[in-house]
């Protein structure tokens, strides 16, 4: 063993500075959510839709159940950085946040140059730091108009904003998520298919009308479409304000860019009932009898909550399922096909080959696992309704002539929001599931 004595203070200082910089870089790469955080998600009308922000929040409750934290939406339609600064005290700082994410640029591009945008953003960052909060920078989402990175078109200025914001974040050592470039080509290449997707949605509605002449032809057309290997997907909404499918993609892009942990748990068994491996979960009470295999599974965290209305994009944007690696693998099964039931509810029909390779339980939209995710989303949505009431009251209570009654009402709403946080946490608590595989006939 060799011992080196650090007698040169200059050399020692260099070593310590290098280690310190490496530690800071490592911390900056980690997902920026800490125990006790209050995270305010500031933005414009896209944030105010309470879609990708809700999905982002639900993911955090699902993946990090050991942390205690809270999210608050602070999106306002038409907002620019100066407009956010004007409402900052009563709509952001009043929450006493420890984290403030900024997702602005869609409206700023109309009135500010790139240099002005960055100057404004730097000022906002300093304002965030002045209240002892950590800034997190999100680029805006792209305009879903068919543009791609090869032909930016109407997205040119947002592209310039994104590149400049990345430099500012690096300068400040702040977390940065570039959803613009993560999403641009996915949406752009999909855009030509959206017209067909929207048309199919209208046809499905019409095909439900038994009184419609020729309805059988519509149903035959839809049946043929279902057999196709390619299913067109619509981001819904409009080019600036996507609906749930587009905003689930946005949430996943932001989470991945920030380094969110994609692992939920993994259980591997064989047909005899032997538990070969269990990571992030327990697999107990195993019974292998009569060609069936059953066991109790308790996970340390839960799957990414996926709204039903957005599941259509899972195949289009693999990042979503990569962020929810909730694996089950069963080897040496003798039958060709199996029905998976969870707590007695049919969840999927699978081949033995699929189970041998391993399946991601997040991908199934039915059964208790998916239902728990929906309850988490419902609880987030209910909390955000109270947040909206609090925000309106905060503006009134911050006025110079605010009454004691107005301030007490604000305090009451604050307590109601905190109670709603506890409801989300309760819904996201991992539950024991009874999983059963039986031969499908």
Question: Which features characterize this protein?
Answer:
441 residues, alpha/beta, Rossmann fold, 3 domains, 13 helices, globular, disordered N terminus
Question: How confident overall, as mean pLDDT?
Answer: 92
Give the fraction of residues assigned to helices: 40-55%
Task: Tell me the domain tally.
Answer: 3
Order of neighbouring strands in the sheet with most strands: 2-1-3-4-5
Q: What characteristic shape results from the CA principal axes?
A: globular
Major sheet attributes: 5 strands, parallel
The value of Rg in angstroms is 25 Å
The fraction of residues assigned to DSSP E strands is 15-25%
SSE pattern, N- to C-terminal: HEHHEHEHEHEHHHEEEEHEEEHEHHE
Structural class: alpha/beta
Q: What's the count of strands? A: 14
| Low-confidence spans | 1-29
Description of the molecule:
The chain has 441 residues and is of the alpha/beta class. The protein has three domains: 33-185, SGNH hydrolase (Rossmann fold); 191-240; 262-441, no CATH class. It is 46% helix and 19% strand. It has 13 helices and 14 strands. The protein has helices spanning 9-29, 45-48, 52-63, 81-91, 114-130, 156-172, 179-207, 215-227, 244-257, 319-322, 352-357, 368-397, 404-427; strands at 38-43, 70-75, 99-103, 134-138, 176-177, 263-270, 275-279, 281-289, 292-299, 325-331, 337-342, 345-351, 359-360, 432-439. The strands form three sheets. The protein has a five-stranded parallel β-sheet. Strands 8-9-14-11-12 form a five-stranded antiparallel β-sheet. β11 and β12 (345-351) form a beta hairpin. Mean pLDDT is 92; it is low at 1-29.
